[in-house]
Design goal:
- The complex is a heterodimer of chains A (about 800) and B (about 180).
- Chain A is α+β, with helices and mostly antiparallel strands.
- Chain A has 19 helices and 34 strands.
- Chain A folds into three domains: about 170 residues, 2-Layer Sandwich (Aldehyde Oxidoreductase, domain 4), CATH 3.30.365.10; about 180 residues, Aldehyde oxidase/xanthine dehydrogenase, a/b hammerhead (Aldehyde Oxidoreductase, domain 3); about 350 residues, Aldehyde Oxidoreductase, domain 4 (2-Layer Sandwich), CATH 3.30.365.10.
- In chain A, the strands form nine sheets. Chain A has a seven-stranded mixed β-sheet with strand order 3-5-1-12-9-10-11. A seven-stranded mixed β-sheet of chain A has the order 32-8-13-14-15-7-34, with helices on both faces.
- Chain B is an alpha+beta fold.
- In chain B, a hairpin with a 2-residue loop joins strand 1 and strand 2.
- Chain B starts with 14 loop residues before the first strand and ends with a helix.
- The longest helix of chain B is centred in the C-terminal third of the chain and has 14 residues.
- The chains are: A alpha+beta (about 800), B alpha+beta (about 180).
């Protein structure tokens, strides 16, 4: 594998804590985010948003707004082609501006372009909209109970968007083998990304008929396709530039209505048009963590080994599909990747409700099932009298194995990760030994490094890199990836520098521009370092080959003896004999003409062949173990987390300081979800968000953030560039359950839903004092008719990766 | 465009002010209701100052007014006459970064970089007031600045490292900060 070139040989750039290529621009305020862009004659846009959660639009009158001084254009849904779009091809259910009905508070109904934001805002007040209210669907229970009205006219039936049912092996046989079976019903509340940068976009329509959109997007390539479709323009006439994202976390993955609207307004007015959403609008854009209700029934033996699991999930999807069908898969499909799970049944339902749409947030659909399993594991260990760390270690999935649902796992050092945090935290001296009120808990996880399949079906590369070299000695890397703060631009520079023996700051990186850069699918699913990295290695190795041949001829040295390091190309047996990198490029340009190389990456095929088998497989899996220490005040219910120890198998850190930073960020976001963050709505008051502001939507500040002791476990994976695996999402997964398990260790109560707020802690403590079960959490799991289950024999049953019987009716009622 | 002339409804007289920004005197005319944030970004094009809420909740827009952190989204531009305003663009001297800018870059304390200007300025004010703050004092000073990327840890470490260097020490980051623990 090109990606593993050299393995652990002496690396000069990879593995070193180089400053990011854009770090200084960020620290001096020079970097331009979308809202920092200004163009001459630029207009400003504001959107009129629905004030009701579910209603037919009877009439919209924009005449007064159009006549308002300073207004240049007013659009409604009728002014755009009647074409829907949406992140996934299976649920393209959005209009840029509402057509016929609104489905949530915040749905855009009209757009105004005016000379400034103030005029645009004043003009919005002049748009008259008459609504005919429809019954409102506020929750999973409502969606199950309400067949009519339907929020959307597509989906399974009623307000059920999506159902899926799989069985890998036989849970019946697995439960029969078990010494014990237990079922836990748990809930994971929705939360939002809360990126500091509000979404902003700037569109320009030139007189040559070409459209340019600068926008804060993580997935420029997919947005490009949606714009072409909805605006009915050739994609080649549209240029999308992904400006540096002021935080993404999955919140800027979907194509957004405001992005399409500013394009249309630029085309209508002939002037550049900008929009920057308010913080409240960002809350309604959402696409964050799905609230998920889960039932996890597990059979296990006295040693804690799992014989079978029946895992059911219900996702409250909100008003639109978005990435929701993928999210639905992810609430179960990665469940078998952490511990040995020989028989597994997974059933999932996603419902529509009149709330802001959910989608991908860091860990996309997997923190919820991880929560369910990890708190259940803790209960199992407690019941069996086993050390939960030892129990996890004993049953951790083996490296180089295939799971029950046909996901291939490569390297996976989960046992080492557990050893690291157990030793570092002094676990053995603390677990069940601390004073009342203090506790310690453990949880683990595994996570994918990119998905095997793109969002729309195609056989094209997932990532492309072009390299330009010229006689100046300059090297420019072009790649369609989007820098969202994770350091993806820097990774390209580090990897190319490593291969060519130059410094990362000798390289110019150009990313995120559909006109200039080859396609990369975007910053999602922890795919960027692995996929752009492998493509960059291929492009750089091709360039190195040309330089090597040219220098070999000049020096009359066999080309295989030439080394690249310290900005020189030299004879490895006689390092004095060589040329500078600049001269090497000149020699190659002389020999080959203008220099340019390309590299591409496409993930390896997965062994599963059943329908749906393409979701879950990944080129490489990372894994994480976390131990949390907590202090619970039994009088107030307030939880303080002083410290978290976390070990993550990253394969190879391309840059350790950035990797540690990603892990610390994951711990932070997990801490927020565990203790305070929630997307809460006023069900009895028009289904508006309870607190769409930074002040009231609680997130950890410096004062709540815990200390983090991070361990990087590095065992290079053959599929990763220099062995690298993901680090941006996986380390978040074990944090909330580790905290919940520590709360149990501290005060002996189980809070089986996040956020674990003081009121829930107190309720459970009081219940326990009264002799009741010391637990807070859901107790009922509603059911709905499920489609026939797709049964897939496991590898150890002699299966071939295919389903036993094909169920043609899976997506129909 | 014919409609351009129609913007005659609101005949607000622009305020014409002389401000001192980053040590330079600038003359600027703007609608008097504009916030300092808007004046900096829109009229002076100093876009290094960011905004996350424009409601005084996130700390992104913090600048220094006479050396003290102020949320520029809550301050009126017209109130700045006679005061010295410092933005992130005014921290470096020539091409030499302020020690905080240097350590934030070194430690990856700026991930997406969007909260960074407000945090740098707030930290700068802290270090001018308390040259060698404790970890708790740094946390307290930065408690009003939200960051969603870093978990704050690299930020706290970068402030400590800069404080040590500003005190003349040849300080380097701890090995664990860079590579994690053994």
């Amino acid at each position: 594998m090109a990606g593993n070139n050299g393995g652990k040989r002496s690396l000069r750039v990879v593995g070193k804590p180089f400053v990011k290529v854009d770090a200084k621009a960020k620290c001096i305020g020079e970097l331009k985010y979308a809202d920092d862009l200004f163009l001459p004659r630029m207009l400003h846009t504001k959107l009129l948003r629905s004030t009701v959660p579910h209603a037919r639009i009877v009439h919209i009158d924009v005449s007064k707004a159009k006549a308002y001084p300073g207004v240049h254009a007013v659009l409604t849904g009728a002014d755009l082609p009647p074409i829907t779009y949406g992140a996934l091809p299976v649920s393209e259910d959005e209009h840029p501006l509402a057509v016929g009905k609104v489905r949530m508070v915040g749905d855009p109904v009209a757009a105004v372009a005016a000379v400034d934001e103030d005029v645009a805002t004043e003009a919005l007040d002049l748009v008259a909209v008459e609504y005919e209210p429809l019954p409102v669907i506020t929750s999973i229970q409502d969606a199950y109970a309400t067949a009519e009205p339907r929020i959307h006219e597509y989906g399974e039936f009623g307000n059920i968007h999506r159902r899926q049912a799989y069985e890998f092996g036989s849970i019946e046989a697995g439960f029969a083998e078990a010494d014990y079976v237990r079922e836990d019903i748990t809930f994971y509340e929705g939360s939002t990304h809360l990126a500091l940068e509000q979404h902003a976009s700037l569109a320009q329509f030139s007189h040559d008929g070409k459209l340019t959109l600068w926008t804060s997007t993580q997935d420029m390539h997919y947005l490009h396709r949606h714009l072409a479709k909805v605006l009915e323009m050739p994609a080649s006439h549209i240029r999308v530039i992904a400006t540096p994202n002021g935080g993404g976390f999955g919140g800027k993955c979907d194509p957004f209505n405001h992005e399409i609207v500013v394009c249309k307004l630029a085309m209508v007015t002939g002037r550049p048009v900008k929009i920057c959403l308010t913080r409240e609008e960002v809350f309604y854009c959402h696409r964050g963590r799905h609230p998920v209700l889960m039932s996890t029934k597990t059979g296990y033996k006295k040693d804690g080994s799992i014989t079978a699991m029946h895992h059911r999930t219900i996702l409250d999807g909100g008003a639109y599909g978005g990435h929701g069908v993928a999210s639905t898969f992810y609430t179960g499909i990665l469940q078998p990747t952490t511990y040995k799970l020989p028989n597994y049944r997974f059933e999932a339902v996603r419902v529509f409700t009149n709330k802001a749409p959910c989608g991908p947030k860091r860990g996309h659909g997997t923190p919820q099932p991880r929560w369910a399993q990890e708190i259940q594991m803790d209960k199992i260990a407690d019941q069996l009298g086993l050390d939960p760390a030892e129990m996890r270690k004993q049953h951790a999935i083996a490296p180089n194995s295939i799971t029950a649902n046909w996901i291939r796992i490569g390297t996976l050092s989960l046992r080492q990760c557990i050893d690291k945090v157990v030793a570092g935290s002094g676990w053995k001296d603390k677990f069940r030994k601390l004073a009342y009120g203090k506790g310690i808990g453990i949880a683990c996880s595994a996570y994918m490094t990119g998905t095997q399949t793109p969002i729309y079906y195609n056989k094209l590369p997932h990532s492309g890199v072009q390299l330009k070299l010229d006689r100046s000695g300059g090297v420019c890397v072009f790649c369609g990836s989007a820098e969202i703060g994770q350091g993806s631009d820097s990774i390209l520079a580090y990897i190319v520098a490593e291969v060519l023996g130059i410094g990362p700051f000798d390289i110019r990186v150009v990313t995120g521009d559909t006109d200039l850069t080859p396609v990369d699918l975007g910053s999602y699913s922890s795919r960027v370092t692995l996929m752009t990295g492998n493509a960059a290695i291929e492009a750089a190795e091709r360039a190195r080959h040309m330089l090597r041949e040219a220098v070999a001829a000049k020096l009359e040295v066999p080309s295989e003896r030439l080394s690249f390091a310290d900005r020189r190309v030299f004879d490895s047996e006689n390092p004095e004999k060589g040329v500078s990198f600049v001269d090497a490029v000149c020699l190659a340009e002389e020999k080959y003409g203008t220099l340019g190389t390309t590299g591409s990456y496409k993930p390896p095929a997965a062994p599963g062949k059943y329908k749906g088998a393409t979701i879950g497989p990944s080129p490489a899996f990372s894994c994480t173990a976390a131990i949390a220490e907590v202090e619970v005040n039994p009088e107030t219910g307030i939880i303080v987390v002083p410290r978290i120890w976390i070990a993550h198998d990253i394969g190879q850190a391309i840059n350790p300081v950035l990797a540690v930073g990603q892990i610390e960020g994951c711990v932070y976001m997990g801490l927020g979800e565990a203790l305070m963050e929630e997307m809460a709505y006023r069900g009895n008051r028009n289904l508006v968000h309870k607190f769409p502001s930074f002040l009231e939507y609680k997130s950890p500040t410096t004062l709540e953030m815990c200390d983090v002791i991070t361990y990087l476990v590095e065992e290079p994976d053959a599929n990763g560039p220099f062995g690298a695996k993901e680090v941006g999402q996986g380390p978040q997964l074990p944090v909330p359950p580790a905290i919940a398990n520590a709360v149990y260790d501290a005060v002996g109560i189980r809070v089986d839903e996040v956020p674990i707020t003081p009121d829930k802690v107190l309720k459970a403590i009081r219940a326990k004092a009264k002799g009741q079960e010391g637990r807070y959490g859901p107790s009922a799991f509603p059911t709905c008719p499920m489609p026939p289950t797709m049964v897939v024999p496991t590898p150890w049953q002699g299966g071939d990766g295919k389903a036993l019987e094909r169920e043609p009716a899976l997506t129909k009622k | 465009m014919k409609k351009a002339g129609k913007n005659g409804k609101r005949k607000l007289e622009k305020a014409h002010l002389r401000l001192r920004v980053n040590g330079e005197e600038v003359e600027v005319a703007f609608a008097p209701h504009k916030t300092l944030l808007e004046v900096l970004r829109e009229d002076l094009r100093l876009t290094g100052t960011k905004h996350g809420c424009e409601l005084g909740e996130c700390g992104c827009c913090a600048v220094l007014v006479d050396g003290r952190p102020v949320l520029s989204c809550l301050a009126l531009g017209v109130a700045m006459e006679g005061h010295e305003v410092t933005t992130v663009e005014g921290m470096a001297v020539g091409t030499e970064l302020h020690p905080l800018q240097q350590t934030f870059a070194e430690l990856g304390a700026a991930q997406c970089g969007y909260c960074t200007p407000g945090i740098l300025l707030t930290a700068k004010a802290l270090l001018e007031h308390i040259p060698r703050p404790s970890r708790d004092e740094i946390k307290e000073a930065l408690a009003g600045n939200l960051c969603r990327c870093t978990g704050y840890i690299k930020i706290l470490e970068a402030v400590e490292l800069a404080a040590a260097r500003m005190a003349g020490e040849k300080a380097e980051p701890a090995k664990e900060t860079i590579y994690g623990w053994e």
